[in-house]
Please model this.
Amino acid sequence: MSFTKTIAALLLLAACPLTARANGAASLQFTVAAPDPVMAGDEIMFQTLVVNTGASAWAPGTYYWEAEVYTMEGEEKKFVAKTDPVTPAENVAPGMAHGVQIPFLVPEMFAGRRLLYRAFLVVSGKRLLETDYRGFQVVERQFKPPPEQEVKFGGDVSFTYKNASPDGWGHHQGITSANIVGKIKQSSFLFNTYLVHTYHRPITPNLVLLNYYAPWGTLSLGDVSPTLTSLSMEGQGMRGVLFERTRGKFYWTALMGRIVSPEEPTLTTAGRFARYAGGFKASYQVKPTLKLSADAVLSRDDEFSITQDTRAVVLVPQSSLVYGAMAEWKAHPRLTYLADVQASAYKADLNAAASTSGTAWKQELKWRGELLTARAAYSSVGTKFVSFAAPSVIPDRNTLDAELGIPLASWSSVAVSYNTYTDNLQNDPAKTTTTQTQTNVSNTTKVFGATMLSVSYMMNTALGKPAAAQDNKTTTLSFSVLQPVGAHNLNASVQSSAFVDNTGFSHDLDTSLISLSGSFRMSPRLSASAGFVTSGTKDKFDSSTASNNTVNGNVAYALPGRSLAFQLWTSLSSGKNDSPTFPSETGTMSVNFETIWLKSRASKLTFGVGMLSKTDKYNPAIEGNELNLLTRYNYSF
Model:
């Protein structure tokens, strides 16, 4: 509970409660990536706080968290990696808040880019909650030599060794990363990999992806994130193979891979089967304005992927088959209509003969004009529809989703979004009917030619029928300003949020956040950045407060000859919670220093040392200091 109250006071960048079913529901209070920005090659935490608004508790071993990371390629999100599942040992009773930190090691190849992530909560094998896409910035750690001239094959490879002082410097870790592009005759390829090496696990492929672009099609091997339709397969990363081919008016894609990794059972948890999926999609351009598609996806558990422990809960393998059709009609150069109809056959036990059938459909309109852009979609997912490869598709739910973008001028724009859903479509008297609505309004304005102002308002309501079962509301107001000053950038933001539960199941919470940051380039050889974040949460039920403060800074300097460069960065954070039941007071300080030796235009060596200190007033057992060291070799070709 102390961790929950502390994490509630961290960077509050999102507050969008989501609810699944009447007997299993969660309200998202916030999710944030910290630290942000993060150094390439460092670990970032996706910190999330939820409230169990369902009628039953989440027992240890029955739920877990995981997150997916994406890049933005134009307007499309490209899957990068999925984190390892995090299975908390906390029993989360109804109305209780629950916090989690999902770690992710940021590959160095993404230095200088902005990544996206979203977190998922899975309870009893069902995806109960998923956050919106949230961004974080990856900053470059080292100085890079000037790029070499173009060749048919090029890229960079790095080898890293890390160690830390606890347990007698026994934390040996190696990292191999590569980013290679090239051309082979009329074909081209892109290869990315990030491998972690430890004593007990010599090779852990956190990321492996090969894209081969040939005249006969596109072949992707490794960590792919395919999309067939929004109801059959979407938002589900997999490790496998994906092939796409276009020939004249025909387009088809085929795929196969693992979408869930196995987890061996323990005395308290049932573990998790490996789950595999295979599917295809075939499309035909009937005429320039009309395209028809057919698709099918089979997802199935591998019951032999783990060794069952009869002392814990025994799992049964499951499967889902989804098949259907889709039509895309360009009714006007600016107006597009989409229709998606899918049917499913679900087996709760592969060893049983019977399966359950369900249906789902979705209609969507898109308008892309000069004066405004708009999108409206309505979907109906039947009570018995199950699609393992589309985890965001929740059965027993009708959803209306709309977006509107209005460019008021070349220097100002307004965006409005509206989402509402209703469940319990069969009016089952044993279930609570939930209607949840989320409205967002935001404005971005550029003044004085460079100053960027952003303001947003969000309101989320969840109302049950009867209202005594669920009735809560979250409102969030935020404002930020970005000010370039020559080669420097200054950023400030404030945010406030209020969560009110009219049923009294959960405590009402008020949260505020203030963030100040800046990046400075004093000369071609000297640059720096600094940031300060303070946040606070007040529990209006017991009047307890939780606060958190974080200060970070970075300085980089290159010698005139540019053969040597130095970088120093530090971070200090403190947290305090005066809860009468679970008080806490913690502090963390880290200092790191690196020396980069540019041996040549193609290679460089990095030597780094660091220190981490932790204090905890109420749990001194976790206090301590540790040293760490790093050696890295980079080669560009």
Observations:
- Residues 1-23, 147-151 have pLDDT under 50 and may be disordered.
- Residues 2-8 form the longest helix (7 residues).
- The chain has two helices and 35 strands.
- Residues 152-392 form a domain with the Porin fold (CATH 2.40.160).
